[in-house]
Specification:
With about 280 residues, the chain is an alpha/beta fold. The protein has five helices and 16 strands. The longest helix has 17 residues. The protein is globular and about 60 Å long. The C terminus is likely disordered.
Length: about 280
């Protein structure tokens, strides 16, 4: 496979080289998905995406609106609540069943438009704020690839890769980290890498074109339920044969974390869990 590459910091730096295989590892959490909110430029406060969030102390004494109540929205709201004056957790989903910190106020309407010092919600409620954090996820960027290798379907999910790793029409280009399940991202990336390694070394046969088409079609019809990602990892491990699937202790920890967050997120502490050597965990 011929690859044209270069240092984008240098003008006209470009060279072509032929490789036996290429592994694409640009991920799915590097290009922020910015919502288009009317009059954003008129707002005089701070507006950032969660990708730029680093320290909660930056929001000390401020009134902050967080847009989005998935994992990053919930975690960031909780984190900055220890320093901010008020946190407005805004989203368009159903009302959260959990308890939130006292200074976190849930608003189920989303953003409608900005003013110079406030955000107007979909129900025309006006919130005076000092800062906004968009927790609105990420989007793919495959602009460096030739057309036709990948297809991005509904909800921004890549839909034409065998096991979300191998294109149907190529056997020398592989992708890592494209599975969009709520899973242990880094361990799963390691399992992706192990499977790719097995195919490159020849210990696992690269499926023929027709087999890839059939598997891609079957996987596209799978109902992704609460525990689907654990079964998916077991399947991948059984095919690759060079790594063990996730240990039961990881599922226990994840299930307990979700249970605590669902009941009373105001008391949730990431440092409250201790993994022991006996495939179990303790609550400190």
């Amino acid at each position: 496979m011929a690859i044209t590459y270069g240092d984008n910091r240098k003008k006209n730096d470009s060279q072509v080289e032929v490789f036996d295989a290429v592994i694409v590892c640009n991920g799915n959490c590097s290009i922020p998905n910015y919502p288009m909110i009317d009059n954003e430029k008129e707002f005089g406060g701070l507006v950032i995406h969660s990708i730029r969030y680093r320290r909660p102390e930056l929001f000390a004494g401020l009134k902050v609106a967080v847009l989005g109540a998935s994992h990053s929205g919930m975690d960031i709201s909780h984190d900055i609540s220890k320093h901010a004056k008020k946190v407005y957790l805004c989203h368009r989903s159903s009302k959260l069943p959990t308890l939130l910190p006292d200074n976190v106020i849930e608003k189920t309407p989303g953003f409608k438009r900005f003013t110079s010092s406030s955000i107007i919600l979909d129900d025309n409620d006006v919130i005076q704020i000092d800062a906004v954090i968009y927790c609105t996820g990420f989007k793919y960027d495959f602009s460096f690839l030739p057309e036709g290798i990948l297809e991005v379907g509904q909800n921004g999910v890549v839909c034409n890769l065998y096991k979300y790793i191998l294109p149907r029409q190529y056997s020398t280009i592989f992708f890592m980290g494209l599975m969009r399940l709520y899973i242990l991202f880094f361990p799963y990336g390691d399992h992706d890498a192990s499977y790719i390694k097995a195919m490159l070394e020849g210990s696992v046969d690269i499926p023929a074109y027709n087999e890839r088409i059939a598997v891609i079609d079957d996987d596209s019809k799978r109902p992704w339920l609460y525990n689907s990602h654990w079964e998916w990892d077991k399947e991948l491990a059984s095919i690759a044969g060079n790594f063990e699937p996730f240990q039961p202790s990881l599922k226990k920890i994840r299930d307990h974390v979700l249970e605590v967050k669902a009941k009373d997120f105001s008391k949730f502490r990431l440092d409250a869990f201790k993994i022991t050597e006996s495939d179990s965990f303790e609550i400190l």
